[in-house]
Amino acid sequence: MSADAQSPIDAKRQSASGLVGLLGSVINAGKDILARRREAVAQAASGDLLAKCRQLLHHRGEASGLALACEVIADYQALDETNQLLFFESLARNFDVVPADIISAAEQYKAKPSPAHLSALTKLVEAPRIKLFRRMNMAPGATAVLVQMRGSLQRWLPKHPQLEPVGSDLKHLFVSWFNRGFLELRLIDWNSPAAVLERIIQYESVHEIQGWSDLRSRLGENRMCFAFFHP
After folding, report:
1. How does pLDDT run across 185-216, given as a tens digit for each residue?
2. In this structure, is the dihedral angle defined by the CA atoms of residues 36, 41, 47 and 51, taken in order, positive or negative?
């Protein structure tokens, strides 16, 4: 056999190697296609939610606005991590203030410091997403969802610092919503809702409560317990 001649075994090995390489290329191409499809689906899902957010932001009807807020909250809760990040990025980018408008309004107020110019400037320095969050909060249970939203946002911040303004806006809202001046001081007794009593048993940390009988003794006629509630 000449030096240039190739044995049947070597030929088979070369053929197998070529097939493996070809198969690997096909698999990699398939992975790229799937990744692009997933990205397209993610963008579509996030885009649909953003369209509803824009509707909610400019909506005027009370009943239909409430229904739309419920849809926005439900759609947000259905997002996976990829969609969630896309949603947060869009909130930061597309629902932000417009610096040029703020500068123009500030110059008008500087030239003529009238109440009308001040009011116009005040409206412009508040990002549209703050109004969006307020409208989302119309939906039942939305406050808890918005609190969870900020928690999710905090986890993204180390790698996506551009989302910080969204977190700051949520914090600004929570400071006003959870102000103690809006709370009501109520008496708690054995006839209070079971859910409230369960929370007292669960979260009392100074003097631990040993079950329902212990709680009942602490809420006796000669003892008084008060708590702050949101109206």
Report:
1. 888 888 888 888 888 888 877 788 888 988 88
2. positive
CA dist 165 and 50 (Å) reads 18
- Rounded-to-integer distance, Cα 174 and Cα 145, Å: 12
Averaged over 64-78, what is the pLDDT? 91
Count Cβ neighbours within 10 Å for each residue of 149-184 and write b for 16 or more, e otherwise. bbeebeebeeeeeebebbbebbeebeeeeeeeeeee
Which class for 83: exposed (0-12), middle (13-18), buried (19 or more C-beta within 10 A)? buried
Closest CA to 160 of 49, 77, 79, 85: 85
pLDDT, tens digit, 9 for 90 and up, residues 20-60:
565 556 455 545 544 554 454 444 456 789 999 999 988 87
Which domains are assigned to the chain? 17-98+127-178 (1.20.140.90), 183-231 (no CATH)
> What does the alpha-carbon distance between residue 166 and residue 161 come to, in Å, rounded to a whole number?
10
At residue 6, the pLDDT reads 56
Tokens for 21? 């390489």
Residue reference for tokens 């259905």 = 78
CB 153 within 8 A of CB 88: yes
- Cα-flanking dihedrals φ and ψ of residue 185, to 5°? -90, 120
